[in-house]
Amino acid sequence: MKPSDLFLSLVLPARNQADHIAALLRRHRETLERWSDAGGGRFEIVVVPNACSDDTPGIVHGLAGEDDRIVCRDIPLPGWGRAVRTGLAASRGTALCYTNSARTDPAQVPALVEVFLVSGGRFAKVRRMHRGAPVREIGSALFNLEARLLYGCREGDVNGTPKILSRDLYEALALASDGDLLDLELMAKLKRLRIPAAEMPVEGFGRHGGRSSTTLRSAIRIYAGAWQLRGMIRGFEPGPAVGGREVRG
User: Fold this and answer.
1) What is the pTM of this model?
2) Side-chain-facing half-sphere of 192: CA atoms under 13 Å
3) Class of 3-236 per CATH?
């Protein structure tokens, strides 16, 4: 596939990011416009404000009203997985990308698109080399070790985003997690399908604004949830084909 043939959907969950979401969306739009003008394809940005107590939804709806390449899907309930799945379900692209809107440099998206295409146009992800804080480094290392032991995921950063996957792969994976285990579910299912992850290493990136919702309690819940995910992965029955090839669990 040539870059010009691509229709890229970028999904951005956003919770209580009114202080920076307008500037961030403009940066993503300008970055993708440069990518498109340089030979890339079409794009859309699907923003999912979720359980917001500030004016994030109003700001995003306002920008969407000015530019039909920006889509807003406001949902009342929280959850990383729920927000990502809502955005992916609303996406129209042939390649679907999602990322943590608070912690992603917009320039990473077109760079990862190139890795995605060069590697065969199935799946690509970022691998963060540094998390910016010792506690986060330790927590991430423990979670990645758990993912390796339970599911054989050898990637160094299971939760690293942006991630890009082809539409047929997205449909075959039938993602179901509403919370913070969505990325582990995705990576474990890819392992079952023997689909490799093309990784792009990046340095860590600080928050654009707002405050992280990750706490010690939520981290413990994630570690425990990784064990509970095993039943879903064992019962996973993939869709009939990915990229024209039969896939088996």
Assistant:
1) 0.91
2) 23
3) alpha beta
